[in-house]
Amino acid sequence: MPKRGSAVHVSTHRRHYVGKDGVERDYVTHLLRRSYRQDGKVMNETVANLSHLPGELIEMIRAALAGQAFVAAASAATVTRSRPHGHVAAVHAQAKALGLPALLGPAGRERDIALALIIARVCRPASKLATTRWWADTTLADDLGVADATTDEVYAAMDWLVARQDSVERKLVRTHLSGAANPDRLALFDLSSSWVTGRCCPLAARGYSRDGKKGLPQIEYGLLTDPAGRPVAVRVFPGNTADPSAFTTIVQAVKDTFKLKDMVMVAGRGMITSARVQELRDLGGFGWVTALRAPAIAALAADNGPLQMSLFDQVNLAEISHPHYPGERLVACRNPALAIERARKRLALLEATDIELTKITAAVAAGRLTGAGKIGIRVGKVVGRYKMAKHYSLDITDDTFNFTRNTQAITAEAALDGLYVIRTTVGPEQMNPAQVVGTYKSLARVERDFRSIKAIDVDLRPIHHYTETRVRAHVFICMLAAYLTWHLRAAWAPLTFTDEQRPDPVDPVAPYAQRSQGADAKAATKTTTDGQPARSFTALLDHLATLTRVDLRYGDHEGAPLVPTLAEPTPTQRRAFDLIHAPIPLTLK
């Protein structure tokens, strides 16, 4: 018989056989056994059958019997802190891949704070004071060494950054607007506005609001991008700056600050006016792609003009010429869908204007409104609100008011519905007419950048700074954050709803290109091509934030070491870092 207290061990037995039904079966049995010698032979005694226990518990028993010691997990390691890490790590990795830290300037306290502000603007846009509170709860502040940054240091870093704006933008422009990166030498420019808070900023002024915030002080800012819509420079203007003046400023910057020659500027019809065209001619070395305004189109469409509707009997675009535009090509386009929409909108505005003017007529007839001045003010508000004054004939006296539609003016405007004319100095050897149209319509990419900067990603508005320098620094930080976001959106397209293979439009005049089948499939199934959940860009950043870094303390004695440890990444998180060609870092530095 075996001796009492002799050692036991876990023995695993596997049996494989094919049953009568032809099905292969495997049976695994885990036994707690004791070995002993009897009459010179090794014998085994089964103490217990462990097969019903969970596998991890069986392995623990096996290891304990082999001499390993175990303690309770709570007494072995303590989670002292857990902070979001994945989102700031990914944005920082993309910033490093783009060379952004070195681009900002020499290493130092100001650069670390400025870089942290840019990364925070991508991950969680907020005011500067809110940002310093937010980044302390992530790994960003500790890893960049800015956790103790004071308010004065943050503002000093903004001042340091905006003083280096020309240097930073020169490098971006040299990278993306010159050489092989931009063989057609195209530069896109557009202007937008955002409202400000407070009354102290000298740039704040009331002007035409592109945000629909009428009556509020605002600033304006112009964005310069490459043909793909990648932001490379920004200029801030007072809130009442006209489009042509802003365009003049950016052209001077391209020529004098960025030292670029032979550039083709692409801008809207409100910027490259006839006066600005003459300035570009005088400067030399600049071409342009823009569109004509309605009066110029009407002149071309006159009875003896080159723009006749018969041009569009077979095609929807045609190249014409006119002596008033020497050295330029004119590409006339007719979009039937746009014509229908403009006709619908004009009719709706005319009907709304009729209703309001009829109310004024009734008030005058009833004697509730008298005096030509007062009547004129009321009428002016109505026709000004709907911008329909050109389509009405108005008869105002001290005690009467009558109005009729100007059918001749309405008919003349309707004849031009859906027509637009693009003017350019680019020769046919570089761009055919369809490419000219596509180049002008690429301004939509700048509009997309403005949406990203204003509301979708970077959340520039409203502006809470009260000095000109700080406002410029705020806008510059948002532009650099948009530059980062542009690259991240491109890299993470396989994980988001972005159309990765958007087909080129068959008809350049058509309003929109069709989405690819892959984009339709992602939208319908809410999954990517590799089976991962498809997300929006901001939702992907939120998901990356769930990749936390945990500080573990091993032991409960004084001075026990803290060991930072990453949570296990999800497949989507691993894929996000793979797409930006970066490993998942434990720390940012």
Notes on the protein architecture:
The chain has 589 residues and is of the alpha+beta class. The chain has helices spanning 55-65, 73-76, 86-97, 100-104, 109-123, 128-135, 140-144, 151-163, 165-176, 243-257, 274-283, 294-300, 336-365, 372-386, 407-414, 433-441, 443-456, 468-491, 517-525, 537-545, 571-579; strands at residues 8-18, 24-38, 41-49, 77-84, 186-195, 218-225, 231-238, 263-266, 286-291, 317-320, 329-334, 392-396, 401-405, 419-424, 548-554, 562-566. An 8-stranded mixed β-sheet has the order 7-6-5-8-9-14-11-10, sandwiched between helices. A 3-stranded antiparallel β-sheet has the order 1-2-3. A 3-stranded antiparallel β-sheet has the order 4-15-16. Strand 2 and strand 3 (41-49) form a beta hairpin. Helix 3 crosses helix 5 (109-123), helix 5 (109-123) crosses helix 8 (151-163) and helix 13 (336-365) packs antiparallel against helix 14 (372-386). The longest helix has 30 residues, at 336-365.
